[in-house]
Amino acid sequence: MTQLDHRTHHRYAEIAGRQIFYRESGRTDAPTVVLLHGTPASSHMYRNLIPALADSYHVIAPDYPGFGHSERPPVGEFDYTFDSLADHVDALLDHLGLTRYALYVQDYGAPVGWRLALRHPERIAAIVTQNGNAYVEGFVGDAMEPLFVYGRDRSEANAKPLRDLISADGLKWQYTHGVSDPSVVDPDVWVNAHAAVADTDEAVEVQLALFADYATNVELYPRVHEYFRTSNVPLLAVWGRNDQIFGPDGALAFGRDLPAAEINLLDGGHFLLESKLDAVVALIRPFLAQHLG
């Protein structure tokens, strides 16, 4: 790869026969940070974080298959599972020749990132988790129950609350709930999220398939906890404490398996970068400087 300036470059790679989009910035010989997005989102959620890191780091932020600008094959032609998302991210990082990096994970980025860490623990220099869950304590009330119900029975009745979650109103709620001043959240973010994950019936079917697979992430939690204990990986949690999906107990739980984890609860919601970018950057830059270089 060529050396890059600090602008964000928008690229594609063919991975397993599919076009995978990713954002890239910073010098290619600098330590690498991989940003793994959540849902309803894409790498667009990192558009402001990338330039805040690219002066010191090589930053990569992919879109998963079916999200954002990556190829979106129909559900009947692609295995929309979290294992498959991790397969494609793993293959992209191999394609880019990356063998050591820090992970930044949010929402769906967590189960994708945990799979990468379990496969390649030697590659993970550090982890930043921003409302990226790994403990059942993190589930707020019955917020996750519709996903588990749908996973057991994929009826249209069970799909209804999940369709509502990624409707226009549901997307706005996901981006603004828990934010003390919602006027700071640009409405373009949930419009972009709709385009990234729910702009067609087929896109919605992709999201439903992944909702149905979510229980596999919970089944993985004991292995993830063991990975934390055996690797003692440096971990920083920067968590929107008002998140109504993954609550602050999920952040505090990391300290059980990683006693040295740095845990910070900030006044924000699920998509913390939309309201507290500067505060997040102020926490992660010294953490990365200490553990990544």
Characterize the structure shown.
The chain has 293 residues and is α/β, with parallel strands linked by helices. The chain has a single domain (9-141, 217-291), classed as Rossmann fold. The protein has helices at 49-53, 82-95, 109-119, 145-152, 156-165, 168-176, 188-197, 201-213, 215-231, 248-252, 254-257, 273-291, and strands spanning 9-15, 18-25, 32-36, 58-62, 101-105, 124-129, 235-240, 262-266. β3, α1 and β4 form a beta-alpha-beta unit. The longest helix is centred in the last third of the chain and has 19 residues, at 273-291. The mean pLDDT is 97.
By CATH, the architecture is named 3-Layer(aba) Sandwich
The low-pLDDT segments are none
Number of domains: 1
Number of helices: 12
Can you give the mean pLDDT? 97
Major sheet: 8 strands, mixed
TL;DR?
The protein has 293 residues and is of the alpha/beta class. Helices cover 43% and strands 16% of the residues.
Key attributes of the depicted protein:
single chain, 293 residues, 8-stranded mixed β-sheet, globular, Rossmann fold, alpha/beta, 8 strands
